[in-house]
Amino acid sequence: MNNISFNLTLGQIITIILCLLAFIILIQLIFLLKKAFPMMNKLNKILDDTSVVTEVAADGAKATKETVSEINETIKSLTGSVKNNKAIISSISAFINAIAKLKGNVKSK
User: Fold this and answer.
1) Cα separation of 14 and 19, whole Å?
2) First to last CA, the chain
3) d(Cα 73, Cα 79) in Å, to the nearest integer?
4) Residues in Cβ contact with 97 at an 8 Å cutoff, skipping those fewer than 6 apart
5) pLDDT tens-place string over residues 11-56
6) How many Å apart are CA 59 and CA 61, to the nearest integer?
7) What is the Cα–Cα distance from 102 to 99, expressed in whole angstroms?
């Protein structure tokens, strides 16, 4: 019978174990990356959708700001008109009161 003997040193055993562990870690890393690529594609699609939604929201906010500015200008214009008309209305009211007093004076005589 043939006697086969293996003489391994402690350093060689540690090297073999470390190589096996590295190989196992490499396989695990490959499986992890295989799962990560589809997730990254989905994430990119989500970010693209978010970009579109953000753009739409920004446009809406800009339009709302313009509308509010226009409403503000209209209110300022109306306020100015009311102030100007207030003087006219006061004058007309005073004129009507004067006519009423005059009429009252004419009826009492």
Assistant:
1) 9
2) 159
3) 10
4) none
5) 999 999 999 999 999 999 999 999 998 899 999 999 999 988 898 8
6) 5
7) 5
Q: What count of other Cβ atoms lies within 10 Å of the Cβ of residue 45?
A: 10
With H, G, I as helix, E, B as strand and everything else as coil, classify residue 8: coil
On whether the pTM is more than 0.85, the answer is: no
> Residue 61 is inside which H or E element, if any?
helix 10-108
CA–CA separation, 103 and 96 (whole Å): 10
Nearest to 102 by CA among 88, 94, 89: 94
- Residue 7's H or E segment, with its range, is none
Neighbours of 94 (CB within 10 A): 10
- Give the amino acid at 34: K
